[in-house]
UniProtKB/TrEMBL annotation:
Keywords: Signal
Originating species: Pustulibacterium marinum
Protein name: Uncharacterized protein
Source superkingdom: Bacteria
Signal peptide: 1-24
Length: 239
C-alpha cells in the first residue's frame, strides 16, 4: 500500500495538466529536441535499463504488447521530458520497452519502471502514469492509463495480459489473454469499478443518472466498455 505525499499530489496535478492541455509542438519541445540532438541521443538517461528479451513462440496476431510495433512516445523520466522515443508497452511484465537510438534491430531496453513518471503513445492519444507518482493509494503497482481526469474524479484503466500455452497442430505456442480493470480515483484512493452497482455505491447521489445512462447505452457497454465508462464519468463529473 502506498502513502500519499504533497510532492506526489503536486506532480500528479502537473502531469494531468500537461496531458490534457492539448499537447502540441511548442518552443519548449523544440528546444529540448535540439538539446538532445546536440548532446547525442544515444547518451540520454532514458536509454538506461536491461535488455528486453522476448522468447515467445506465437502465431500471427498474438503479442504480449499493447501494440506489437514500436510507436513514437513522449516519456517523462526522472523529471525530464523526452520526445519521439520509440517504445512499446509489455502488458505481461508491465514494462515500458524502449528501442535504442539509431538501432538496426528490434531488440529493446526495459526502461527502469521506478524512473518512468509517465508516458504517452499512439500519437499521444493514450496517456499512462506510474501510479507510484499519483496522489492515490493503490493495491497494484505499475502503469495506469488515464481515461478521465477532472477535479475530484479520475478514471484509470489497468491493462494486462496473461500468458499461457496452447498446442496447435502438435506445436506449442504462447497465447495471451488480455483484460482491463477500471479504477476510480476518489477521495485519495483507487477504487475498482466493474458494474452499475459498484459505481452507484461510490456516487449514491447520482444513482438516477447512472441508472439512466446504463439503460440508454447498452450497445456501447457491450461494444466498448472502456469508452462506455469514460463517457459516463465525464457526464458525472460535469453534472
Amino acid at each position: 500500500m502506498k502513502t500519499i505525499s504533497t510532492t506526489k499530489n503536486l506532480f500528479f496535478c502537473l502531469v494531468l495538466s500537461f496531458f490534457f492541455s492539448g499537447f502540441s509542438q511548442t518552443k519548449e519541445q523544440q528546444f529540448i529536441e535540439a538539446h538532445d540532438a546536440k548532446t547525442g541521443e544515444e547518451n540520454l538517461a532514458v536509454y538506461n535499463g536491461s535488455v528486453h528479451i522476448n522468447k515467445d513462440v506465437v502465431q500471427e496476431n498474438e503479442s504480449r504488447y499493447l501494440y506489437d510495433e514500436y510507436h513514437n512516445c513522449t516519456v517523462f523520466y526522472l523529471g525530464q521530458t523526452f520526445y519521439n522515443i520509440k517504445c512499446k508497452y509489455d502488458l505481461v511484465e508491465d514494462k515500458l520497452v524502449i528501442l535504442p537510438f539509431n538501432s538496426n534491430s528490434t531488440i529493446g531496453i526495459n526502461a527502469i519502471t521506478m524512473a518512468v513518471d509517465s508516458f504517452y503513445m499512439a500519437d499521444n492519444s493514450q496517456k499512462f502514469i506510474n501510479i507510484d507518482q499519483a496522489a492515490f493509494s493503490a493495491e497494484k503497482d505499475g502503469f495506469y492509463e488515464i481515461l478521465v481526469a477532472n477535479d475530484g474524479i479520475s478514471l484509470f484503466g489497468k491493462h494486462s495480459k496473461k500468458k499461457f500455452q496452447r498446442i496447435i497442430d502438435r506445436k506449442t505456442f504462447d497465447v495471451f489473454q488480455e483484460r482491463t480493470d477500471f479504477y476510480v480515483g476518489y477521495q485519495e484512493k483507487l477504487i475498482e469499478v466493474s458494474n452499475r452497482k459498484s459505481i452507484v455505491k461510490l456516487f449514491p447521489d447520482k444513482e438516477e443518472e447512472i441508472n439512466s445512462y446504463f439503460k440508454s447505452q447498452k450497445q456501447l457497454q457491450k461494444k466498448d466498455f472502456s469508452l462506455f465508462l469514460k463517457k459516463l464519468f465525464l457526464q458525472i463529473s460535469a453534472s
